[in-house]
Amino acid sequence: GLLLLAAALRVTAAAHCPEPCVCDNLRSHVLCLNGSVTAIPDTIPELTRKLDLRGNSFVVIPAGAFLATPYLTHLDLQRCKVERLEEGAFRGLGRLVYLNLASNGIALLYQESLDGLFSLQQLILEGNHIEEIQPGAFGHLGSLIVLDLRANALVYLPDMVFQGLQVLRWLRLSHNALHVLGNEAFAALPALRRLSLDHNELQTLPGEALARLDGATRLDLGHNPITYVAEEALAMASLRHLFLDHASLQDVAPDAFARSPQLRILDLRENQLQGLPPLAGAGGLVRVTLDGNPLLCSCLLRPFQKWLARARVQAEGACAAPPALRGRSLNSLKSPEMRCSRFRPPPRPTAPPEQPRAGGSRQCPRGCVCSDFHHGSCENRDLQEIPRDFPEDTRLLDLRRNPFRTVPPDAFPGLKELVSLYLQRCSIRVLHPGALRGLESLVYLYLNNNHLSTLAAAAFEGAPQLAYLDLDHNAFTRVPAGIFQLLPNLISLHLQHNAIEELAEGDLAGATGLRWLFLAGNAIRHISPAALAPTKMLEKLQLEGNHLLEVPTTALRGLPALSELKLSRNPIKHMGDSVFLPVASSLQHLYLDNMGLEQISPYAFTGLGPKIRSLYLESNKMSNIPDMSNFTGLEILNLQDVPFHCDCRLLPLHRWINKLNLRVGATCGSPAEAQGLKVKLSTTFQTCPGWQQGKAGETNPNKTKATNKPSKKKRSGKSTAGGFSKSRA
Fold first, then answer.
1. CB half-sphere exposure, 385, CA atoms < 13 A
2. Fewer CB within a 10 Å sphere, N or C end of the chain?
3. Rounded Cα gap, residues 180 and 493, in angstroms
4. Ranges for the LRRNT domain (predicted)?
């Protein structure tokens, strides 16, 4: 009897819905949206199937965070400011089939980060800061069907990086910065049917890596700077759809696709092709799309045109020259019209030469481990000096947690193929000139958590491909100026949690290709008007947790690509007119939370509008905010912990919030009768002039539908995936 009573009490306790969450009647679907939750709630009902935690602030998902909810099948952690997944974070979730971690700050996937998810079918990691994936990170995901890694910071895919994904059907790698693929990067994907590699930095078609995908039927390679497709460049036995649109193609070899016999659709839109040869090797082609190319419809195009007719291939495209044929579709041309005059064709581009691969015996320094997948590791071996004699084909070298103290000149001889070098927590104080000499393929360098205070530019001599430099948690008091002239391919610079006090003119000289600049957690008080001028390609600027007293408006001029600006946790009390105007045409994500902000000018957001997708204003002290009715593209708006004064001056905000299809968390701080009430529910507005007229507009179903339509369109296919529905404010 006592056992039955205890069980009944446990069921009753589990039935309660934790604050501030919302549960359905059966407690199987729990929503805790856009709140100030900073830890995974431990009172969620045990039998919960779907848990939606979007828009909270977890930062770290600790080991065993969900052990209390073993029946979960769907888990949504979008926009939760997650930076790290500890090993074993999802252990116990053996029934989970859908996990959404999109739009967080995750930078690295460790081997055991995703341990225990053996039933997972969809994993969404879109829009994080993932720069590198450690081998084995996906080894426990044997049921995964879709892996979404879009919009991260990947440059390199090592061999066997997707090992364990035996049933994966769609791999999404779009919108990264990939330009190095290991020849065996896709070797462990026997079930893959679709591969998305569009919007990357691939300069040549990665034929050897793609040849491992015998079953893939669709390949997206558009928006890559590929100039030439060489002879037999693509050997994919099952490929049916190939997209090479919006690249830089100038020529395609006649038998480029001879080893892809199932190819049916070839999309070559928006390239630089003046013509094509007969693609005799692609016997199964049905359609070739050439719209947007500068096609020269002269006699030189006759062989291609005759081949189209003979092979019964449909061609889409129009002539750009000669003038007499400009605008004519390819299908309408007759051979006699395609004449030659005094025309000399440009020289045919040649394929980039194959880089000889360094041979490598499997020798390995004593105490270290060297795998057949070109990885070397001496982590935490108490080594005083950097070991040598690694295999010459080593591509990833892990030397973390050794007390080296210095990195001498020529510290890594013979490692011309090295791509990733880990030197975290090595007590390093000095990087000597020539330290990286010979590392001509190095892309990633991790020097975080050391004792560096200065860097000599000559230390980076001989590593021109370096794209990611992590100097977080060191002792810099200023940006190490002068090093960027030797790093023409630098994309991402991490200088977080140092002691930098100023960003001065000339500090970033030479950083012309920089896209992401991370300066959080310093002591920056001033940014020179010209400090950011060299970084014209900058997309993300993170300045949270510094000592700025005002928005650095002048310094933001000349940044036409800036899409994300983080100013959180700076002591900015007042915000004047047009402070974001220099970046208004590109800005999409703006973080202004936790600043103690007391007053925002009505014109502070001048220029901002439909492009803004997320705006964070939580935990501030202002009582009103500017008109944002033209922010029609908003997907996230956080107004929690702002003491709004709910009088008639706030009526426009009240009406606007009621029309939004978002949870914003806005509450009244005053007057006393409204304190603690949600702005959208407060009755203090009912005495305001024009209340009834506005109320009629709000209840008009046609008007409401029209107002919500843009937001709904923006969000389709994202937050509703996996069975979660949108929730109104």
1. 10
2. N
3. 19
4. 16-50, 363-396
* Residue 682 CA to its chain's centroid (Å): 39
In this structure, are strands 29-31 and 22-23 parallel, antiparallel, or unpaired?
antiparallel
| Three-class SS state of 7 | helix
Per DSSP, the chain holds a count of helices (H) and strands (E) of: 6, 45
Question: 421: which strand partners?
Answer: 397, 445
Residue 325 DSSP label = G
- Give the number of residues written for the chain: 729
The full DSSP string for 458-496 is GGGTT-TT--EEE--SS--SS--TTSGGG-TT--EEE--
Q: Give the span between the Cα atoms of 162 and 211, in whole angstroms.
A: 15
Residue 671, preceding bond cis, omega within 30 degrees?
A: yes
SS3 state at 721: helix
The values of phi and psi at residue 316, to 5°, are: -115, 125
How far is the C-alpha of 479 from the C-alpha of 534, rounded, in Å? 14
Question: CA separation (Å) from 353 to 56, 247, 250, 356?
Answer: 50, 20, 17, 9
**Which tops the pLDDT comparison, 122 or 661?**
122
Task: Please write the tens of the pLDDT for every residue from 627-673.
Answer: 888 898 888 888 989 999 999 888 888 888 888 877 788 899 999 98
Report, in angstroms and rounded to the nearest whole number, the Rg of the chain calculated over CA atoms: 29
Q: 375-377 and 369-370: which strand pairing?
A: antiparallel
Distance of alpha carbon 273 from alpha carbon 251, whole angstroms: 6
Assigned token pair, 160: 């066997």
Kind of pairing, strands 375-377 and 574-575? Answer: unpaired
Q: At 183, which amino acid appears?
A: N
State residue 711 phi and psi, 5-degree precision. -65, -40
Q: Which amino acid is at 436?
A: L
Torsion, CA 363, CA 364, CA 365, CA 366, rounded to 10: -100
At how many degrees (to 10) do helices 651-659 and 701-715 cross? 70
Closest CA to 144 of 110, 116, 168: 168
Of 539, 572, 346, the closest CA to residue 553 belongs to: 572
CA–CA distance, 156 with 489 (Å, rounded to integer): 14
pTM: 0.67
CA angle at 557 for the pair 553 and 560, rounded to the nearest 5°? 125
Residue type, 354: E
Cα three-residue angle 490-491-493, rounded to 5 degrees: 85
Indicate if the pLDDT at residue 15 is higher than 70.
no
Report, at the CATH architecture level, how domain 32-192 is classified. Answer: Alpha-Beta Horseshoe (3.80)
pLDDT in tens, 245-265: 999 888 888 889 999 999 999
Report residue 307 as tokens: 């081949």
Within this chain, domains 11-25+369-499 and 32-192 share the same CATH topology: yes
For residue 685, CA distances in Å to 441, 500, 521, 602 come to 64, 48, 41, 21
Query: Under a CB-based contact definition with an 8 Å cutoff, are residues 273 and 293 in contact?
Result: yes
670: exposed, middle or buried (Cβ count in 10 Å: 0-12, 13-18, 19+): middle
Task: Answer whether 602's CB lies under 8 Å from 628's CB.
Answer: no
Tokens 């939606």 locate to 52
Tell me the C-alpha distance between 212 and 198, whole Å.
19
Contact (CB, 8 A) for 484 and 455: no
- Give the separation between CA 301 and CA 296, rounded to whole angstroms: 7
412 near 432, Cβ under 8 Å? no
Q: Of 244, 175, 238, 230, give the one whose Cα is nearest residue 212.
A: 238
Contact in structure between 198 and 178 (CB atoms under 8 Å): no
Q: What is the pLDDT of residues 162-194, one digit of tens each?
A: 989 999 999 999 999 888 888 889 988 999 999
**Nearest Cα residue to 679 out of 649, 708, 641, 653:** 653
Could you tell me which CATH number the domain at 11-25+369-499 has?
3.80.10.10
Give every CB contact of residue 372 below 8 A, 6+ residues apart in sequence.
Answer: 362
